[in-house]
């Protein structure tokens, strides 16, 4: 039985990858951070009671800032494969916490690579580094491929640039089987609530159900190549099954704007939108409502406004990937389109919003009885 260690197992990708590896018969170990509340919601459905025999999913407390902790865990687990997905992964937040982002997203990778080297595991343990299309930043070539020059535009991207090169360096200097997956944006119903796609699907579903009055966004003109996280974790695994280590761009080759994603979401909810104004004064107004997903909305209502706080000090305006190498050498292809993924995310967030409405209604008689 192969053994994998995943950093960031409680995150979006970590949860899909853990599921995928378990389905392939792996024993899966994950590093989770200590938190003041439960933080395993994304993996609760695959959690196994550690008291049971033959458990194949095990969690370890740890942090990418802690070299001794990482070295101990890698030494105990003796993994065949390490997937380094843990990160302060929010680009906007990295401008507010640049030093922390550098510590975790750059030096965290070094700490893991050193653990492999110091434990003498370089012939046993294969290493996957979660590199990012943010490396291309201010793009030098379109579409972006493995050979496109990098130009990072945020503390996050600069930290990920270090991790990209230190992974290449350990491959070249110490003979590690180490690969960078240069993944373009990938989303899902498990996407963190502050990334733009999930913010839109969750936010608009809540507005449609009357739980919130309005959604506030930043740059609607940003262009992204969005895929589904389920497809992208499959590519991560495929990279580590090759005969020789190599770096791969993973993308769909299709590009859409944040504004288009907003329109798709509105359409899924039966809302027709009209955009008015421009720049920070741009708004989206309801023109018509059909179906039963948006009972709280009436024509004329403004349900999206711009908040300048969500603009970044340096923006990545456009990203579009060329995954030809992954297609030819790995046989990888995305199975879900961005539009299908949007529909899946809206369905999940609408269900959640409806449950919230029902919970509030159920609470009402008790509140009335209590004189509140
Ligand atoms: P998430 O933000 O959903 O998950 C990040 C994970 O890292 C969480 O499990 C988080 O733990 C963990 N983490 C954060 N800080 C630390 C730390 N100090 N020590 C240990 N673990 C930590 O990200 P995604 O799943 O979307 O992305 C996975 C990786 O891929 C990240 O490295 C990201 O930068 C990269 N990437 C993502 C892309 C995307 O579009 N999703 C595209 C390209 C790259 P907790 O749950 O406790 O917060
Ligand atoms: P990104 O994803 O920065 O590409 O990084 P995000 O969804 O945060 O932003 C995408 C684009 O949307 C614009 N935008 C907004 N973004 C957020 N978060 N909130 C808003 O209100 C908003 N309004 C407009 C942004 O300016 C940006 O242009 C993600 C992360 O998962 C990284 O970890 C990963 O490396 C890259 O994708 C590839």
From TrEMBL:
Pfam families: GDP_Man_Dehyd. It comes from the Bacteria. Transmembrane segments: none annotated. The keyword Lyase applies. Its EC number is 4.2.1.47. Residues 5-345 form the NAD(P)-binding domain. It is an enzyme of class 4 (lyase). One of its GO terms (molecular function) is GDP-mannose 4,6-dehydratase activity. Its cofactor is NADP(+). It catalyses: GDP-alpha-D-mannose = GDP-4-dehydro-alpha-D-rhamnose + H2O. Coiled coil: none annotated. InterPro entries: GDP_Man_deHydtase, NAD(P)-bd_dom, NAD(P)-bd_dom_sf. Keywords: Lyase, NADP. Catalyzes the conversion of GDP-D-mannose to GDP-4-dehydro-6-deoxy-D-mannose. PANTHER family: GDP-MANNOSE 4,6 DEHYDRATASE (PTHR43715:SF1), GDP-MANNOSE 4,6-DEHYDRATASE (PTHR43715). Belongs to the NAD(P)-dependent epimerase/dehydratase family. GDP-mannose 4,6-dehydratase subfamily. This is GDP-mannose 4,6-dehydratase. It comes from Paracoccus aerius. The gene is gmd.
